[in-house]
Amino acid sequence: MLSLGARSATKTQILQSLGFNLTHVPEPAIHQAFQHLLQSLRAPSKDLDLRMGSVLFIKKELWLQTNFLDNIKRLYESKVFSTDFSSTSTAREQINSYVEKETEGKVVDLIQGLEPLTVMVLVNHIFFKAKWEKPFNPGYTRKSSPFLVGKRTTVKVPMMHQVEQFAFGVDSELNCSVLQMDYSGDIVAFFVLPGQGKMGQLEQALSARMLRKWSHLLQKRWIEVFIPKFSISASYDLETILPKMGIRDAFDKNADFSGITRRDFLQLSKATHKAVLDVSEEGTEAAVATATKLTVRSKDGPSHTVVRFNRSFLLLLVRRATEAVLFLGKVENPTKF
């Protein structure tokens, strides 16, 4: 969205750092693809609650280019709010309460502080809530199981447990096990457990191609699975991360956002990302309903593979139809919120 209002090197740095090759893909095609992706993700579904949005909070006196406003509304369905930034605490409260409401209270205090010179805040938010196609029975959740943090420390976590048929595979090239669990609807979760000491190697190799490879590699089989029940939250100050990716000019005196406003000089001062994810017996949010499945097959039933997610693992939530990754994270300590 920001690239729509950026010009010269500022624009190029944003798009190239996000992996777009402007000689192969013209800029309008990039925005149209995002527009299409957002529309497909917003398609209503009875099985899952997926809400996303973009909001621009702008200083009342800021004179915006009509073209920029039209484009962010048309392509990204962004809302625009006129905001009084003369009181940074009031503006911060307005932004945080809006995001909290849109994410059903999951993302709180997104903005920790605003500089007195702030004239514009751009916020993207996503809220995801779904139920497992094959839910866990809370009665089989072990209240206190060891989970290895680092090389030697263990913490106690509630460990969900079930024996079911899931798509599963071992990637011998990367030395990791991949379990696919489906949500009701079109979303799948990939739980990826690297071999001891192989997390760095796995992170380096992550790519869209790798995901496709896993999708083809996995086969349905009986699995006895142990997965921690957890709620995790992570916040990132992107003003330290984005320049390392190549988005530098946007944050300093070389910034060119003349596509947003011609009258004033704008530069980025803060970029924040916060994600919250709950994984429980029912799905991604704890629910009061009890699972109807009460059978754990006896050990002398069909032979099965045992997979224990009792140390650091990766988790990806993917929309099947578009192969869009909605969430990607590393669970290092499920007790930390």
Automatic annotation (TrEMBL):
Pfam families reported in the protein's UniProt record: Serpin
MF terms (GO), sorted A to Z: serine-type endopeptidase inhibitor activity
Keywords recorded for this protein, A-Z: Glycoprotein, Signal
GO CC, one annotated term: extracellular space
Keyword Chaperone: no
Highest taxon of the lineage: Eukaryota
Domain spans labelled Serpin: 1-334
The keyword Signal appears for this protein: yes
SMART domains: SERPIN
Record family assignment: Belongs to the serpin family.
Annotated protein name in UniProt: Serpin A9
